[in-house]
Amino acid sequence: MGNSMTPEQRDVALSEAAEGGMVKKVDSLLKRGANPNRKFSERRSRTSLHTAAKTKNNVNVLTKLLQHIKDVDETDEDGNTALHLAAGYYNNISFVETLLNAGPNCKIQNKNGETALHSAINGGNEWKIIELLLRAESDPNVADFNGNTPLHLCASKRGVDPMLPGMLLRFAANPNLKNEDGQTALHVASKTGNKSVLLLLKFHAKVRIRDKDGKKASEIAATDDIREILLCEERELEERTTRQSQSSLTRTS
Fold it and tell me: What is the pLDDT of residue 1?
């Protein structure tokens, strides 16, 4: 039957075999000329590499495909690369790790302006994937089309593992970048009751920044505890500023 298949049938069979993790079938179809670069409109214009990202422990299939793939950064109709899908939608650690060895462009943004790092945080919040992406030089300060950086996204999730924003900050995420609402990650964390507030302050998040409504993070706090932490930081900052001003006056007098 394999020899009687049309090129289109072989390509469809390859896409299905890749999604199903069927290594031997993928290998056989590739040897018979199936095209892993073909996009299918009925599958959101995804290639076999995109569909393979769905299946966990699918590294052997990925390895076979990479020997024939022309462009690992091919995008689907939503602008997602296979890395976007594996990192976010499918939370596929081994696939991400293997794909990164093929040198994909981690800076590609989909139609929402999201990089694979955004997708990873929006998806499974798997810290290992996020670490892999950061070590592959994903930029933690790229904003999506709503102005949100990966740090904003972490701050927006109340139950997020504190390890995730901490990792972003250690890889030079800027806590003072504003989204389209004029809010920093500190605003977002305060508003959602996210426990990363203290961590953001440790990494020099500025408490005096106001959003488009003129609000500081302390003024939109979800809980009294967070509000008091931020107000305390504001008071300490005011006291430091006063002391520095007085010291400066003393030196010049």
Answer: 45
b/e sequence 65-76, b meaning 16+ C-beta within 10 Å: bbebbeebbbbb
Residue type at 214? G
Give CA 122 to chain center in angstroms.
7
In a domain, 80, yes or no: yes
Per the prediction, the chain carries an average pLDDT of: 94
The pLDDT, as a whole number, for residue 249 is: 61
Taking only Cα atoms into account, the Rg of the chain, rounded to an integer number of angstroms, comes to 24
- 180 vs 3: CA distance, rounded Å: 56
The CA distances from residue 41 to 13, 47, 111, in Å, are 15, 10, 17
Is the CB of residue 52 less than 8 Å from the CB of residue 19? yes
The phi, psi pair for 46, rounded to 5°, reads -95, 150
Is 224 part of any domain? no
Q: How many domains does the chain have?
A: 1
pTM for this prediction: 0.92
* Cα–Cα distance for residue pair 224/84, rounded to 1 Å: 38
Residue type, 86: A
Range of the domain at 47: 1-139
Check residue 161 and give its pLDDT.
83
Measured in residues, the chain has a length of 253
SS3 166: helix
Contact 222, 190 (CB under 8 A): yes
